[in-house]
Amino acid sequence: MFWWQSILRISRLLFFSSFLLLGACNSPVNDSANQLIKSNPKETASIKPIIEKDLWRHITNKTTLKAPSQKQLYWHIDWFKKHPDYLTRITKRANPYLYLVVQEVEKAGLPLEIALLPIVESAYYPFSYSHGTASGLWQFIPSTGRLYGLKDNWWYDSRRDVLASTKAAVKYLKNLNKLFKGDWLLAIAAYNSGPGRVQRAIRDNKKLGKPTDFWHLKLPNETKGYVPRLLAVTELIKNPEKYGQIITPVDNKPTIESIELNTQFDLALIADWSEVELDTLYSLNPGLKRWATPSEGSYNLLLPIKNMKLFKQSMLKNPNIARLKWIRHQVKQGDSLSVVAQKYATTMKQISSVNQLENHFIKIGDYLIVPVAQKGAEAYSSSEDQLEKNRLNSKKSGRKVVHSIQAGDSLWLISKKYQVSIKKIIKWNHIKRSEPLKLGKELVLWQPTVDAYKDLLSVTSLGIDIDRKVVYQVRSGDNLSTIAAKFGVSVLQIKQWNKLDDRPLQPRQKLTIMVNVVNSKMK
């Protein structure tokens, strides 16, 4: 048995030796590796993601919204293919604002396609104004704008402010997405036509046992085309060569920054201190309507980064220089607060506040402190007053007519007289349907050419009735004035058509409205 015990002892020794060797291999080597990792972090650092230099490419690389097939996008893509210069112009126009918009969209966690929505809404033109009184990149109407904190006063329209309106649009779209349980196509459709209309369409489909996604809903023609147009724009920017498009690259880095101003500044002073042309200043800050920043509250001014540095340095060097120029105005015979405010392109409220006036009462001989622009009106080329002058002097197709508002005028009567649509009158002159026309105000109109008149005559010669009868159901909050403004007719006409007396309207009451088909472009 001795030989067997010897073999067993040798086996145990070999096993124990191998165990020691394995332990030696694991422990010292791992310790060394750990020390190596700690002492050489660069060698083990994770690879940084490649940042896309072109902002358009950055957007389209992360797109998530899709149509069931290209058939839904065909008509829109075909239109852009036939107008290749259109998207080229828009992509150039978007350049100053795109990075800012993308940042807000990404920060809120929205699909990046949302950053392309201003292409559909306003062609990325912040001064855009539609027939529905919608304004700015995101085309907010006044009521929705107010709901999301966008104010419009004499000095400033924050619906046109790129930063303020983008923040509001992102918040609105995020709320719509929650309302429609995460369906972004329904949220985008609701942004166009209103959430109530989309909800009604969904309810109708549910009753009929039909699908309730965007592609199966019965919606207005404009909304039916709105969502596919956004998806088509995304496809075109993603594959420009395929569709014969030229997309101007935009650097994926900030080029502008904001500074909060807590006092009113003359824009000419900002231009001098920052070395930015006034035209550029207005284009970066399109919400500004006059020659100065707003008179109340703070204002976020946008400037190119390199110019912002100069502006901040100038502010530090000139802490005691007045940001506005003031004059002493002696009240004369015939002066009123409104007359003085109009003379110096400011507001009655501001003059009252500065001079601590009560009830807007001023006396002959009194002195008023009034803010005035540092430069002549023409220097502030994109102020509201200058834009209106530009509209009156602009050139469009057709024959130009300037109409001065007279007593009894209405948009409907003016449109019928000059054979132009009410929508075009509103768009040409940036007026609101709901506001009464001011006596003496000049409207610029563009009448159809002789050939267009011949086309109109050919329609009427066929015996087609160009007046369409519309049945309107009264809604809560409606009155005759708002309904008349909506359809561009007079209150008297509505009363005559419906044989109404002075009793108030009732919700769901039906009214007959006669609308001129040719002028209204109704479908």
Question: What share of the residues does DSSP label as strand, in percent?
Answer: 5-15%
Structural class: mainly alpha
What is the CATH architecture annotation of the largest domain?
Answer: Orthogonal Bundle
Average of the residue pLDDT scores: 82
Our count of helices gives 24
> Nearest-angstrom radius of gyration?
33 Å
The CATH topology of the largest domain turns out to be Lysozyme
Report the uncertain regions.
Answer: 1-8, 13-45, 450-467, 517-523
Shape: globular
Reported for the largest beta sheet, the result is: 2 strands, antiparallel
Amount of helix: 40-55%
User: In total, how many beta strands?
Assistant: 8
CATH class of the largest domain: Mainly Alpha
Tally of individual domains: 4
Oligomer: single chain
Describe the structure in your own words.
With 523 residues, the chain is mostly helical. It has four domains: 55-243, Lysozyme; 256-317, no CATH class; 325-379, Membrane-bound Lytic Murein Transglycosylase D, Chain A (Roll); 394-520, no CATH class. It is built from 24 helices and eight strands. Strands 1-2 form a two-stranded antiparallel ribbon. α4 (74-82) packs across α12 (221-238) and α10 (184-193) packs across α12. The longest helix is centred in the first third of the chain and has 38 residues, at 2-39. The radius of gyration is 33 Å and the shape is globular. It starts with a helix and ends with a helix. The model is unreliable at 1-8, 13-45, 450-467 and 517-523 (pLDDT under 50).
